[in-house]
Amino acid sequence: xxxxxxxxxxxxxxxxxxxxxxxxxxxxxxxxxxxxxxxxxxxxxxxxxxxxxxxxxxxxxxxxxxxxxxxxxxxxxxxxxxxxxxxxxxxxxxxxxxxxxxxxxxxxxxxxxxxxxxxxxxxxxxxxxxxxxxxxxxxxxxxxxxxxxxxxxxxxxxxxxxxxxxxxxxxxxxxxxxxxxxxxxxxxxxxxxxxxxxxxxxxxx
Length: 205
Known about the structure:
Imidazole-glycPsynth_HisH, 13 strands, kinase activity, globular, histidine biosynthesis
């Protein structure tokens, strides 16, 4: 059973609809008991890093999520700000991240100065995935396109934790992985059949 972590932020209904259409068992998790029953977890996120971390930290599910991921090895997929929460910290705020994939979330603003590229990075863009990346199984290299909406990007400390890159004024990590922890900066729930295949791959890990 995939549990969508409902801590008050993120477009959970879109994920629910997608998995139900694929006939993959899914539920909204609002309590620690829901997390205990899950075999996989999805951590969505939108908006400001600190706001997302504060809501998650205040939820009754936080401690159970941490234990199930770090001790039980339950796979978790962070999406958009949910991916950024996997890092140690973010330039967008002062709250510490979960630190499950060592790295820092950085702002595009200075990097894009003088490059005539708008912020946020919004719309469809190509992703170059590492060949062995489990989330990108069965993807054709020329057809890996996803929908983005963000002004900050995840820079992992170790290059081996990057499993997908995107070019927007710089080549940045848009998909990361360490052990049972996965994250994507783009929105698979808004990425048509590309996102559907990625979420199906996560369900089949």
